[in-house]
Amino acid sequence: PTFILERKSMLERITNQLQQPDILLEANQTKDPIERFLLVLKWYLSSWFIAPKAVKKPLNPVLGEFFTSYWTLSNGQSAYYISEQTSHHPPKSSYFYMIPESNIRVDGTVIPKSRFLGNSTAAMMEGLSILKFLDIKANNTYTDNADSKEESLVDYEYYTLTQPNMYARGLLFGKLKLELGDHMIIKCPSTNLVADIEFKTKGFI
């Protein structure tokens, strides 16, 4: 329904995830791998706090639509962002973010699949983000290529981050509210550290 639409495209909405660069910069300077992992977790969790005051859904981008942006950070460095709608069915938004002077890079896709559940609607988020610290060496880490199933050497530390699902409640009756639900998984293959964050939605009672 149009009354729950936000006046911005999903391509711009993705930048909410990137609004805490100082935490990323701190993580990149942290030598202890566990402390670094916790800072990455803190950075990613903090991005999900940024949400519209009301239940609002960003506009669906059209195929080929793109959005670019850049920021001047507190340390004087610059961060750059570009995103594009790379598929229409299913909808798929692809993005690239980088702080070149700190060798921090984030690539990702957002693939929301809508479900209508009576008085609520759900966006099942099937995309994946990959955070890379290009100047932090990995410890002989191997990763599986999803297409070829062959192992290849990765010489930098990286993290894979999934997204929680989103639920808009109260479409037909009751108060409109937005909830995050289900699991969000963060992994660092080079350190074998994993975080499984579960967002518990409220029941009907």
Write the layout of secondary structure elements.
Blueprint: E1 5-9, H1 10-13, H2 21-29, H3 33-47, E2 57-59, E3 66-72, E4 78-87, E5 92-99, E6 104-110, E7 112-116, E8 120-125, E9 129-144, E10 151-161, E11 165-169, E12 177-188, E13 193-199
Parallel strand pairs: 1-2
Antiparallel strand pairs: 3-4, 4-5, 5-6, 6-9, 7-8, 8-11, 9-10, 10-12, 11-12, 12-13
Helix pairs in contact: 2-3
Q: What's the tally of helices?
A: 3
Sheet with the most strands, sense and barrel status: 11 strands, antiparallel
Overall morphology:
globular
* First-to-last CA distance: 25 Å
Specify the structural class.
Answer: mainly beta
Mean pLDDT: 87
| Number of E-state strands | 13
Q: Please state roughly what percent of the residues sit in beta strands, choosing from under 5%, 5-15%, 15-25%, 25-35%, 35-45% or over 45%.
A: over 45%
* CA radius of gyration: 18 Å
Uncertain parts: 145-151
Helix-strand string: EHHHEEEEEEEEEEEE
Q: Helix share of residues?
A: 10-25%
